[in-house]
Amino acid sequence: MVTTLVTATPDAARALAAQAAGRLAIALFQVGRETMPGVGHGLPHSARALPHPPTTRAWDFLSIALAVFGADRFVLRSDAADGWTRMIEMEVELVEPDPWTAIAPRLAAALRFLTGDIWILSFRAGGAAPPTFQPRLSDRDSVCLFSGGLDSLIGAMGLLAEGRRPLLVSQASPVEGPVQAYLADRLGLADHRFVGRATERGMETYEQSSRGRSILFFAYGALAAEGLGGVLTVPENGLISINPPLTNRRIGSLSTRTTHPHFISELQSIFAAVGLNVRLHNPYGLRTKGEMLAECDDPRLPQLASLSYSCGKGKRLNRQCGRCVPCLIRRASFAKAGVPDATDYHVPLLADAARNDDVQAARWAVEQLKTRDLSRWAGAAGPLPRDTAERAQYVDVVRRGLGELRDLFAPISWP
Predict the structure, then answer these.
(1) Cys staple from 18: which of 7, 10, 120, 351, with CB 3.0 to 4.6 Å?
(2) Are 103 and 96 in contact (CB under 8 A)?
(3) What is the reported pTM?
(4) Residue 374 counted as domain residue
(5) Burial class (CB in 10 A: 0-12, 13-18, 19+), 134
(6) Per-residue pLDDT tens for 18-37?
(7) In a domain, 61, yes or no
């Protein structure tokens, strides 16, 4: 297996030296160019919108996240022996590398689970220091990841219903950014947001799978949460969190693991080991998307739900495709909750997408509910809790979530 050697540094001279030595150099917090990939140049300025200056530990984690995201984008899977699994040996410059060096193998294992690649990590001094500024008075008492998707919308509404005052944290893209801004405004939270933009540049061809992108959400959230009580809400329904492979061939390339309980648990233990005061919390891990929608009693939800963005493949269409797995689960949730779905799907009628790979896989999966060992199936995407009762709860949310898909498909006359 070919190993790609990567150096991630905020220093242009050291980046050039690494490049001259035959390594892939990623210039952290710098504008990339064709001869030198860069990522995250705007973040030191954006971070000044936070109520409190980032801690060094949180900023070092952001440096790691940017390096992972950059490598994930700049190292092509097509060059791997199997067309997917890459071996990436990466050195990242940090302000305080020692705590991260102590847990490097554990972090590498967590990244392997997240991206499906083999990571070898090392850390050295020389990282960029966090921006410094005077703390501002703030009434925010919680932090919520806010993608602009339906789950994150319900998550923010849930915090507001509890009387909390959340700060919304987003990774903006050209498609999702306007949705995030609009929904935040309708929730009365337009002035209580932190928006990060990694803005990677420098390669002619980028890897499109981008399994490492989600680490940025956690890094942005950590920047904010340490100064606001330490709790970072990660709203995601249980079926998507577990994400059991709909078919046997989807275990690797088509099953994301961003909020899988195993990854969240591993990341939480890493935070604890390095002294990063952030607690990850998913209040919806044992709820289906339909149950989330049905149980949310915010009067704005029926109107705003259809304006959220849940699609996994619609960016090139500039609209939600209506037939990818996230779109199918979204459509099933509206049907389950009895909420009219006014989403502008590229494919409004699922019968017209009968030959689509995602639709066929989902239809096959719901048929397997009748005969398949659901506990084994739910565990195929990653380890579930060892506690019997807790594991059974996760298996049951998978059963109920797939049942929502079954109910969505049942009245359709397939060609």
Answers:
(1) 7
(2) no
(3) 0.95
(4) no
(5) exposed
(6) 999 999 999 999 999 888 99
(7) yes
